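Researcher: Good morning. I'm working through a list of sequences from a screen, and I'd like to move beyond sequence-only analysis. For each chain I'm collecting a predicted structure so we can compare shapes side by side. This is the next one on the list. No need for commentary yet; just the structure.
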Amino acid sequence: MGKRADKLPKPRQPVKREIGLLQNRFIARFPPLFLSMGQNLYNKVFDRHCVGQLPSGQYQLFIGLHLIHEVTSPQAFAMIREQKLSVPFPERTFATVDHIIPTNTEERQRPLADSLAEEMFHHIEKNTGEFGINFFSPEKGEQGVVHVVGPERGLTQPGMTIACGDSHTSTHGAFGTLAFGIGTSQVADVLATQTLAMAKLKVRRINFTGALLPGVYAKDVALAYINRLGVNGGVGYAYEFAGGIIDNMTMEERMTVCNMAIEGGARCGYVNPDQTTFDYLKGRDYCPEGAAWDRAVADWGSLASDVDAAYEDTIEIKGEEIEPFVTWGITPAQSVGVAQALPALDSFAEADQLVVREAYEYMNFEEGQPIVGTPVDVVFIGSCTNGRLSDLREAARFVKGRKVADGVRALAVPGSQEVDRQAIEEGLDQVFNDAGFQWREAGCSMCLAMNPDQLSGNEISASTSNRNFKGRQGSPTGRTLLMSPAMAAVAAVEGKVSDVREHLEN
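Model: Good morning. Structure tokens for this chain:
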């Protein structure tokens, strides 16, 4: 990966030595809740981490890894202080700043021009310092989007329970973890107790069979299952992503698929750990070494769902039937294949027609019109969904030697400072700059737009992020079309939604 681990501070030894094993002292006190044969990974990991059952009927789970950022943590720390509580396992929590930090180099100078953003930045520095929590700071070159930093540093490991005050914590499920996005009060709970109260979920297995055709990417796979099952289809479920297509994906592709499980209503999504997982993690900063690594791999492999595991239900999606997807509405489920026309209102159930009508009105689209050819004003390549090195590499393929269309503002934003370093080493920044993109520094950027990277007026954005809600990208009338990095790259040079398959090399 070309990482510069020599320039990074060494992990604290207790964490490095036993990062996935501290919970064993709790586990030993409580027998597994379920002893039946044929368990799926969700139940195996849940049972390992269950430390008791509450009077409410919920279970209390030990949280192996807690990730925090500057937006949802200040109130949680204030609650800790108000209750005069401590943080008993500070080595289990890691922090970064991602949502509010500008991605323009000049605007990153401290103090930040936005006083609220500067206040949030100050608080996470102060809070992590006071409670002895590791802070991945920009000054040390460690900063990035929380769901990019965790995996790339080797903090995310199979069999863990992971919590973060961010919806897209499901990303970490790609490693065979149970990873939950939580609210601010729950962030305080985890800080104070290292546990999280929750009900047990049902498990749905989604099998992707066959093979993906050229021009179809992990982002399309994610949009495909959300299109099929809807934004509420996963409520009360954990999604297990499986099948030959998932097996053949890289870890970064699996992270994209799991990242959007929350957009399908699922509480979490995961992939069973395998050799691809182990190869990705080996040698990373916080992973075990030597004999400890061998023991960890043996344990991780045992967590994969048994061949006779039971599921609430199983869904099959054929890879050959997945097209490059584009969203057209105000939920990630409102999408079509790029070659398709927008659906007729009467093709939806009566209960869904109200939100469909609202989407058409907001987007200024009409049923039956083609999505291809839709002009775009802004292109954003980045986010916790698609801001990794492989995403930037693939997008660069389609902009190299070409120019961003007149009138289009295009941003390429690495997901972390480490991704930025690697991309620069490969010359990707120059490819994007030569094409007319703005190469930015690491951050969430235009995904949530809690920083200067925002839409203006009713601009249409071709975005590689994960949500197309009203006002999501900073303008109350801005419009977002979700798509893969390759599709976004082609949209940038064409100035409109285009079919990436027409731009593939022969």
